[in-house]
Amino acid sequence: xxxxxxxxxxxxxxxxxxxxxxxxxxxxxxxxxxxxxxxxxxxxxxxxxxxxxxxxxxxxxxxxxxxxxxxxxxxxxxxxxxxxxxxxxxxxxxxxxxxxxxxxxxxxxxxxxxxxxxxxxxxxxxxxxxxxxxxxxxxxxxxxxxxxxxxxxxxxxxxxxxxxxxxxxxxxxxxxxxxxxxxxxxxxxxxxxxxxxxxxxxxxxxxxxxxxxxxxxxxxxxxxxxxxxxxxxxxxxxxxxxxxxxxxxxxxxxxxxxxxxxxxxxxxxxxxxxxxxxxxxxxxxxxxxxxxxxxxxxxxxxxxxxxxxxxxxxxxxxxxxxxxxxxxxxxxxxxxxxxxxxxxxxxxxxxxxxxxxxxxxxxxxxxxxxxxxxxxxxxxxxxxxxxxxxxxxxxxx
Length: 397
Description:
Elements: E1 10-15, E2 22-27, E3 35-36, E4 39-42, H1 47-63, E5 69-76, H2 84-94, H3 96-101, E6 103-104, H4 113-122, H5 130-133, H6 139-150, E7 153-154, E8 158-159, H7 160-179, E9 188-192, H8 196-207, E10 211-217, E11 220-223, H9 230-235, E12 253-255, E13 267-270, E14 289-291, H10 300-308, E15 313-314, H11 316-319, H12 322-331, H13 339-364, H14 368-388
Parallel strand pairs: 3-5, 3-6, 4-5, 9-10, 9-13, 13-14, 14-15
Antiparallel strand pairs: 1-2, 2-5, 7-8, 10-11, 11-12
Helix pairs in contact: 1-14, 2-4, 7-8, 7-12, 7-13, 13-14
């Protein structure tokens, strides 16, 4: 059994004076006086959703033993709305007391890193990691290191900061495959959501020789049991992660968006919105395992149903934590602008955690979420105890 979920430290509700749209900041925990978590934007975003995500961030940072707590920002606005950028700018301005001192934010659903950095720069905050960078004895040098890491080019024409989260999800999937003795070339994966996280995961799984048999975006599901041409499909995406169907080969099946849940694949990767797997569709899942790339991808009811059916779920706060963990390794100087170093470190850290979760599942059918929460709680307790004794303080070189 795990301890009861603690209440958030801070909840802030903001109303945009221009559009009337609402935004939220939830700080679940502070460690070393600071918390980290992205800012998302989607129509229908609620404070409850943001609180769930903030809790997930607290688990992420503790699972990877990072010297920070967890927080999250959210704005109830369609990112395609022409007024969306203005809403984001006013939200960031209103949250500035937290962003100056205690909240490090970054990209999330509907808010690419490039956009949030542009907003921060316009407001004189330089970059969205501002609250951590300003703690450095040489903020300019730290900012240069962060920019160099985020903008390091990687094969495929992308930047390291844009793909590192998806790379981590891919490593989580490969960790599951390895635990069950599956060959990469014989493993099949279906990916729901083909934006930054889902697209990056699909790219690196494809590079590893895994067959991506289905991907889904807002327009529907694309399916080919022989494997999709992932590089080609990614080239057809627009900035909202939607694939231009005019360039999709006629041999690829076009199915409804919700069909992705029931696709015959070894691993299902929900990488779109929160609560995509719920009590209504959990029985449709035929995959042998689920790797959560989206935050809060599975509702508690769906989680219980799937585990009862013998389908393990690698939780979001492990599988999709690569971007958050990497950002802090970059801030603390543990990695730099050489992508190979970042890939090696993330692969090692992710595979070891997934192996532990799968070992517990295989040995006693302990749900991976339970094992991961226990690890996070243990790590957090040890860190807070050490911090109270004057050790393990956050150091930004």
